Each structure stands twice: as structure tokens, then as C-alpha cells.
């Protein structure tokens, strides 16, 4: 169950003041990428950095990193147990996300982190992460329609909630490629707080920073990727001016060429699961805005090779038409599946496969559509056969991405176990 508000997280952390400074990131899309870019550059610059993002990819603790390494499971469980005991003793009744947030923040304390890069879970104003007080810079990524039941039905309402992380005296960076109504809402709040703001435009920022322009060219990035990277670089300049005034950001930018963000336009090989040798595109697009980005990439990079074979799932409550009708085209083939239970997030459920199939089948001249329920491996196997050597995309949910990574890990462990027994 999702319960927004700051009273419970404040009670959880009242006895343990945070010993580190934060970079706080809100938005609908791009938060995770910006977090990864910032954490990577800070670590490359010798700053002891923690990162907290959500949801987790495979294990609950992999959403917390120290120096770009996932926190040890033993430490996570030790501090999580301490936080849960405090919650029970004080009768706070914290939500799972609040317990996780408190655990991450206490791990940062324990590990003597200097800067914590913290991604908002949902919204901003009432999100548990907004308990942060010692913030170096606030970042607002791309904002779109998502979680309307909690945040509002319009871009203006959602933007006001996201802008709730902005604080007096704390500079902010906003993605300058946001819609005009988003930018106007952010500008009003920034003016009200009288804080310094940078509206990150990838073309302007890369022109000012030749090293960033080189990374853009080297990686052949899409516009949203350039915007995310520009936000991260702009935020880092502001943060370093307060903690490492002598450290030049331009010397850290080349390290961005090596950042990987699993589940976002990620190319993977499924050889341990199927006989397919060609790479597969894995993307966690789960709302209309991220689907639009995925669709642009697929149309530009993959469709010239032929029609697309898809493996899709979605969370219950998502607008499947907005999510899939913009990316799945006539002639495409589609395997419908459902992700499994999400550890620590029992309220998250997969959309009904029959309903998803009906949505996809309403696309004119759609190719074969087959339902596999919760058998993700069977869905992938069918899709690999249908695709032959042609393009194959797995998308629709970050939780589907997680399950695919989990299947790959299990297959790898099984193969290693078999080899060890020989």
C-alpha cells in the first residue's frame, strides 16, 4: 500500500541525524539515469558517494550502492532489521518504502558517505525521501503523466508535486526539454522560493563543454539521453562548488562513456535461455512518455531491419493503450506475459494478460498475438522463434525487466554449478 507523507519517515530517523549531504532528484522519467551519471562522476572524482534508487532490479538491496558497488546483503539486512525493530517499538506503522528509505539513509551514515544521490520514489512533496534537509542541489527530470491517482490529472498538478522537493537556499537544475506547462509551473515555484535555477538544454550545455559534446557523439545518444546527461553535469557543477571547489567537472565527464543503466535501452544476449544469438533490446518503458522514447529508438534503429517481435507485460492500472499503441505497429508479433510478485512491494500487480491481449489486438493489421500468462520464459522462447534473427524487444514494465534479469542470473548460476560438478 502506498501512503504518502513525511511524519512516519521523520519519526523513523529522528534519533539518527543524517551525516551526509544530498543531491535530490525528482521527475517522471530519467531520474535513474541522472542518478547513475552523478554517482559515477562523483566516484570518479574521489568523492565517497552513496546512491538510492527505486525500484530494485533483482534483489531489494541492489537499489543502494556505495562507490558504485551494490551494498552487501549482510549489511543491508542488519540495518533493515534495526529500522524495522524501531518501527515496531515506536508504533510508527511505516510503509515498506519508508522502511527502505530509512535503511538506505542509515547505511549511508554507517558507510561514512559524503554525498548521497537520492531518487524520489513517487511525486516529491510528500515522498519519504523529502525528509532530506542538507541538500546540495535539487534536480527535476522530465515530467509526464504517471501515478495520476496520487499526483493529479494534469501536467501542472504533477509538476507542482515534483517541485515539492525544491527548498529555500538550495539551487536547482531542471530538464529544459520539458513541456511548456511543466516549465511554467517549475518557474513559478522557483520564483516563489527565490532560488537559483539552471534549465538544462543539451545543445547549449554541450556547446559550453566540448568534453560532453564528445561523449554525445561517441555514444550516439538520443535527445532524452543527452538531456539526462546534461542535467547530471549541471547538477554536479553546482554540488562540487560546495564540496570540492578545486575539482574540474570537465575532467570527470569522459567517465560517462562507461556508465550502464540496466533496463533502459539495454542490449542483452539470451543465449543462456534460448538458442538466439542476436542481441535483444530490454527496456523498462512503463508510461506514455517513456514509451514514446522507446518507440523513437525502435523506429530509428530496429525497424529498418524488419517488423518487431515484442514480449510485453504491464502493471495493473496502467493505460495499456497509451503505453503500447504508440510503439507496436501493424505486422509486429507480440507475446503477452505477466511479471511475478515484487519483493517488498506487495501492492504491485501485473496487468491481466487477456486484457493486454485485447488492447494489442485492436491495433490494425497486427501480427500474431499469443498469451503466456506468468510463463515469461515460454514467452521469450516463442518470441525468439517468431523473430528468427530479426529485432526483438522486451518492454512494458520495470518489473518485467527485473524478472528477465533474474532468469538470466539463475541460468548463469545453473550453468556454473553444472560445470563445477563435471
From TrEMBL:
<dbReference type="GO" id="GO:0005524">
    <property type="term" value="F:ATP binding"/>
</dbReference>
<dbReference type="GO" id="GO:0006730">
    <property type="term" value="P:one-carbon metabolic process"/>
</dbReference>
<comment type="similarity">
    <text>Belongs to the folylpolyglutamate synthase family.</text>
</comment>
<keyword id="KW-0067">ATP-binding</keyword>
<dbReference type="InterPro" id="IPR036615">
    <property type="entry name" value="Mur_ligase_C_dom_sf"/>
</dbReference>
<dbReference type="GO" id="GO:0005739">
    <property type="term" value="C:mitochondrion"/>
</dbReference>
<dbReference type="GO" id="GO:0005829">
    <property type="term" value="C:cytosol"/>
</dbReference>
<keyword id="KW-0547">Nucleotide-binding</keyword>
<keyword id="KW-0554">One-carbon metabolism</keyword>
<protein>
    <recommendedName>
        <fullName>Dihydrofolate synthetase</fullName>
        <ecNumber>6.3.2.12</ecNumber>
    </recommendedName>
</protein>
<keyword id="KW-0460">Magnesium</keyword>
<keyword id="KW-0479">Metal-binding</keyword>
<dbReference type="InterPro" id="IPR018109">
    <property type="entry name" value="Folylpolyglutamate_synth_CS"/>
</dbReference>
<dbReference type="InterPro" id="IPR036565">
    <property type="entry name" value="Mur-like_cat_sf"/>
</dbReference>
<comment type="pathway">
    <text>Cofactor biosynthesis; tetrahydrofolylpolyglutamate biosynthesis.</text>
</comment>
<dbReference type="InterPro" id="IPR001645">
    <property type="entry name" value="Folylpolyglutamate_synth"/>
</dbReference>
<dbReference type="GO" id="GO:0046872">
    <property type="term" value="F:metal ion binding"/>
</dbReference>
<dbReference type="GO" id="GO:0008841">
    <property type="term" value="F:dihydrofolate synthase activity"/>
</dbReference>
<dbReference type="GO" id="GO:0004326">
    <property type="term" value="F:tetrahydrofolylpolyglutamate synthase activity"/>
</dbReference>
<keyword id="KW-0436">Ligase</keyword>
